[in-house]
Amino acid sequence: MKYPHAKGLVLLSNPAALVESLSAQYGEPIAPRSLTTVLLRYFAGGWSWIENVQSTSLDNPDPHAACELTSGYLGTRAIAVIVDADADGVGDNTGFHVNTVAHAAEQLHRFNVCTVAAYAARAARPGHLVWSLQTDTFLGTVPPHHLAEAPTKYLCGPDITHHPSAAFRLSA
């Protein structure tokens, strides 16, 4: 859920809230088959500023996405979100999704950015399931959008960025 804290600031406390906020942060709707990467810069107490958001097609990925995400920013961590309208939810972590995130994590590592979490959803719209690609567990549903004005800053909480595994790794 999102908690408006101060004018223009939104605290994202869970992965479902992060997924709901992606379209607003990216500046346009998230495509039904996409990989969206969120660049984070550590703030304090486990919270991180969202510095940049980049989205690319799952079917035709942008080879320069990692460079575009990190260029001019100081963030050192990233979160990957797969949006796939054809995915069935928990238990449907196909090799394709895992390999796509692993490839993106490898590209980001070249820019000294560690991918700390990976999530998936059928859509970045209210009511859709959100699950972890790392633990294959259900994490909630995308909440309705409640903000009347566009925020200017987003903070991700520790429940989004501190994952059981330190960084995303390709499954054996």
In short:
The protein has helices at 15-26, 65-70, 95-109, 158-161, and strands spanning 2-6, 9-12, 33-44, 47-57, 77-84, 114-121, 129-132, 138-141, 153-156. It has 172 residues and is α+β, with helices and mostly antiparallel strands. The termini are far apart.
Topology:
Blueprint: E1 2-6, E2 9-12, H1 15-26, E3 33-44, E4 47-57, H2 65-70, E5 77-84, H3 95-109, E6 114-121, E7 129-132, E8 138-141, E9 153-156, H4 158-161
Percent helix range: 10-25%
Model regions low in confidence, pLDDT < 50 over at least 5 residues = 1-5
| Assembly state (oligomeric) | single chain
- Strand ordering within the main sheet: 1-2-9-4-3-5-6-7-8
Strand content: 25-35%
Number of helices: 4
Note down, in words, how this protein is organized.
The protein has 172 residues and is an alpha+beta fold. The protein has one domain. It is 22% helix and 35% strand. The chain contains four helices and nine strands. The chain is globular and about 35 Å long. It starts with a strand and ends in an 11-residue tail after the last helix.
Keywords:
alpha+beta, single chain, disordered N terminus, 9 strands, nine-stranded mixed beta sheet
